[in-house]
Design brief:
single chain, mainly alpha, 0% strand
């Protein structure tokens, strides 16, 4: 079911969606985890997202590339959709590893900046990358978008 995709695309938390639909937060969580939903719950959710119930029951959300909405998208967003199509899913742990590596490399290059200006510039770029991944982790936690492989639970490390 595409409920979580729709919720995240509208920048809604589970609590906000529950309030807008008149459903319980636990009901939203159960539906997003793959459990079946009553017809009444689906109707409430469909009304919030302004879609029909059949759209909510879809497993994936398909975009018509001939539509006006697709044509109006920037090239960067089109690339992002293609990248997402390749099923690369960033986990919180991999984002944290990239952040730590970027911090370490950034500090090392900044220290080397005493001897070489290019190393200083590289260090600043790596530190900027680390802080961008810090922001990514914060956004991922805020909107609950982390990919969680089957059999693994997300830790808040």
């Amino acid at each position: 079911m595409i409920l979580k995709q729709l919720r995240i695309s509208r920048h809604l938390s589970q609590e906000q969606l529950a309030q807008m639909s008149g459903l319980n937060v636990r009901t939203i969580q159960r539906i997003e985890s793959g459990q079946s939903a009553s017809v009444e719950s689906l109707r409430c959710l469909a009304a919030v997202f302004e879609v029909d119930v059949l759209t909510l029951k879809q497993e994936t959300f398909m975009i018509d590339k001939r539509s006006d909405n697709w044509q109006k998208l920037s090239p960067w967003l089109k690339v992002w959709f293609a990248y997402n199509f390749l099923s690369f899913r960033l986990t919180r742990n991999s984002a944290k590893r990239i952040e730590i590596l970027s911090h370490a490399a950034g500090y090392i290059f900044c220290m080397l900046g005493y001897f070489n200006q290019a190393a200083l510039a590289g260090g600043l770029i790596m530190l900027s990358n680390a802080y961008l991944f810090c922001l990514l982790k914060w956004q991922g936690d805020k909107y609950g978008i982390w990919y969680e492989p089957l059999g693994q639970s997300m830790g808040n490390s």
